[in-house]
UniProtKB/TrEMBL annotation:
This is Claudin. GO terms for molecular function: structural molecule activity. Belongs to the claudin family. It comes from Myotis myotis (Greater mouse-eared bat). Claudins function as major constituents of the tight junction complexes that regulate the permeability of epithelia. The lineage of its organism: Eukaryota, Metazoa, Chordata, Craniata, Vertebrata.
Length: 228
């Protein structure tokens, strides 16, 4: 169970780090290589900034100045990724209290419940990130394969794959944490009964009382006829 919790914590914290990297990245979608060959420029767009670069090495980014001009799916992805990062952070803190190697959290039964709660939080974090990345990717693919769409077409950026990977790690870590409470309830506990201290005389009396041995009268052993 201890190794399972360590593996779950590594998956959860690693997934949380990947979600932070995906949320702050500016490579959610990039321009296609076919269009960038002629102009020698390419564009990266993220949830918070739009960046452009060229073959000479210059690279500039411009943030979204107002929230009201941002498209609806970008705002939805922002909310989902912020929720995923927040849940991943709290899940990591709760998981530390549910680990068997820590001295905080109370008894083993209480720690098992805390670990299960951390698993549920990690699973919710992974689902939020998976939904946000999938929503953004669906918008990109829909525009890319639409023959009537005449604006700039984009491809899937590296941030989407990082977000999917982080979501998968969070879900795997959460499932392991949830199953750790099942392993804790399944493990039998040894019980030791204390009967109290017994005296030496009582133990000897108990020992001699169990034997059906009849001893002769001591006075008859030393009778005068015994020496004749």
């Amino acid at each position: 169970m201890f190794r399972a919790q360590i593996s779950a914590l590594v998956c959860g914290v690693g997934g949380f780090g990947a979600l932070v990297a995906a949320t702050t990245s500016n490579e959610w979608r990039v321009t296609t290589r076919a269009s960038s060959v002629i102009t020698a420029t390419w564009v990266y767009q993220g949830l918070w900034m739009n960046c452009a670069g060229n073959a000479l090495g210059s690279f500039q980014c411009r943030p979204h100045f107002t929230i009201f001009q941002v498209q609806g799916y970008i705002q939805a992805c922002r909310g989902l990724m912020i929720a995923a990062v927040s849940l991943g952070f709290f899940g990591s803190i709760i998981a530390l209290f549910g680990m068997k190697c820590t001295k905080v959290g109370g008894s083993e039964k209480a720690k098992a419940k805390i670990a299960c709660l951390a698993g549920v939080v990690f699973i919710l974090s992974g689902l939020c990130s998976m939904t946000g990345c999938s929503l953004y990717a669906n918008k990109i693919t829909t525009e890319f394969f639409d023959p009537l769409f005449i604006d700039q077409k984009y491809e899937l950026g590296a941030a989407l794959f990082i977000g999917w990977s982080g979501a998968s790690l969070c879900i795997i870590g959460g499932v392991i944490f949830c199953f750790s409470i099942y392993d804790n309830n399944k493990t039998p506990r040894m019980g030791y009964a204390y009967n109290g201290a017994t005296s030496v005389m009582s133990s000897r009396a108990k020992y001699h009382g169990g034997e059906n041995v009849k001893t002769a009268n001591p006075s008859k052993q030393f009778d005068k006829n015994a020496y004749v």
